[in-house]
Description:
Order of helices and strands: HEE
Mean pLDDT: 75
Distance between the termini: 60 Å
Strand content: 5-15%
Radius of gyration: 21 Å
Low-confidence stretches: none
Number of helices: 1
Helix content: 40-55%
Shape: elongated
Amino acid sequence: MRFIITIFALFMAVADINSQEVMKANVDFNVWPKGELNTAYAKYFIGNSYLAPLGGENGL
C-alpha cells in the first residue's frame, strides 16, 4: 500500500510540473515589441537581439 501511495505521489508531481510547462508555453511574457533581428551588433550578444522602436510613429 505504501508503494502505491509513493508511486501515485510521484505521478502527481510529474503531472504538476508538466502542466506548469504547458502554461508557460502558452503565455506571452513579452512586455516590449519584438523588432527586427539586430545583426549589426550580433557579436556583442549571446543569442539573438532585436531592435524595436519605442517612440515616434512606429513605436509605442
